[in-house]
Automatic annotation (TrEMBL):
UniProt keyword terms in alphabetical order: Phosphoprotein
GO biological process: phosphorelay signal transduction system
Protein name: Response regulator receiver modulated diguanylate phosphodiesterase
Keyword Phosphoprotein carried by entry: yes
Sample GO molecular function, one term: cyclic-guanylate-specific phosphodiesterase activity
Origin: domain of life: Bacteria
Residue ranges annotated for the EAL domain, each copy included: 21-278
Lineage of source species: Bacteria, Bacillati, Cyanobacteriota, Cyanophyceae, Nostocales
Residues of the full protein shown: 122 to 403 of 403
Length: 282
């Protein structure tokens, strides 16, 4: 498990602020609070139905290009924004951008797709979250089922009862819920069927090299099986090779995203990508 541990600690991030982190934090504060999200943009990574090879949606991923620092990865600035509270503003900006975009795409006749948005723990636990989402759905006249919120196992396991309560409220609006990075958190599987979720996203860690790694293969097939028994949709993250795709197809995974099909794309390129109707190399 050495690799998994290393992978997980890289995801959770360091606690002490290095000079680099202090610089990033200062620029982040400026960009968010004083420059109206200058340099921020949402990218969209297509999600593909494995059986039909059709694009069924996209995951929204934030990008930040800063004049001092160049591109800064969300893996770097999101944890900082969580620790200084900026994530509330950032998260609201992301949801607003995505909802506005869903509305524009619907008006321009792009067929119904599901757009996933990542929520951080702090946003998920914010009392105003539900009202903000109600407002955005109404304001942009969005079919709620077009919006899927991604939560991580870790987030929902912190306080199971409150999480179930909030998730039920979201579901009652018609919004969908996915559990992101599934398999790497504290999977108390016994809770899984109590959570009102629609989708499980199998973490990239398990997908990478899955055909050649019997442990990953065993876990991935078990996750798919279990998810299907609970009537959940399974999405594999980080699919990079034909062999990984073949394995997932053979084991009935429902959908996938990854560099094999497409990297996350700026909105105009995502539109072109949809229009080009590109299908998978078989
Ligand atoms: P995530 O939600 O698990 O997103 C998937 C990450 O995997 C993305 O990294 C995506 O670019 C990357 N990815 C997709 N396909 C492949 C592949 O085939 N190979 C490899 N190596 N990577 C692939 P990204 O965009 O750097 O985001 C990292 C994390 O930052 C996300 O992980 C998510 O936890 C967080 N994040 C990104 N955007 C947002 C946001 O708007 N709000 C919040 N709260 N978090 C965000
Ligand atoms: Mg995600
Ligand atoms: Mg993920
Ligand atoms: Mg991840």
């Amino acid at each position: 498990y050495a690799n998994l541990k290393k992978y997980l600690s890289a995801q959770t991030g360091a606690q002490k602020l290095t000079p680099r982190m202090q610089l990033v934090e200062r620029e982040l504060q400026l960009a968010v609070k004083q420059k109206y999200f200058e340099g921020f943009e949402i990218y969209y990574q297509p999600i593909i139905d494995i059986k039909t090879n059709k694009i069924i949606g996209a995951e929204s991923l934030i990008r930040w290009q800063n004049s001092e620092l160049g591109p800064v990865s969300p893996a770097e600035f999101i944890p900082l924004a969580e620790s200084n509270g900026l994530i509330i503003d950032i998260g609201h900006w992301v949801l607003t951008q995505v909802c506005e975009q869903i509305n524009n795409w619907r008006k321009s006749g792009i067929y119904p797709l599901t757009f996933a948005v990542n929520l951080s723990a702090i946003e998920f636990n914010e009392p105003e979250l539900i009202n903000k989402i109600i407002h955005l759905l109404n304001f942009y006249n969005i079919e709620p089922g077009c919006l899927e919120l991604e939560l991580t196992e870790r987030m929902i396991m912190q306080d199971v009862h409150t999480a179930i309560y909030t998730m039920n409220k979201l579901r009652s609006l018609g919004v969908k819920i996915a559990v992101d990075d599934f398999g790497t958190g504290y999977s108390a599987l016994i809770y899984l069927k109590q959570f009102p979720i629609n989708t499980l996203k199998i973490d990239r860690y398990f997908v990478q090299d899955v055909p050649n790694d019997y442990q990953k293969a065993a876990i991935t097939t078990a996750l798919i099986q279990m998810g299907h028994n609970l009537n959940l949709k399974l999405v594999a993250e980080g699919v990079e090779t034909e062999a990984e795709l073949a394995f997932l197809r053979q084991h009935n995974c429902d959908a996938m995203q990854g560099y094999l099909f497409s990297r996350p794309l700026p909105k105009l390129e995502f539109e072109k990508f949809l229009a080009s109707n590109k299908s998978l190399p078989v």
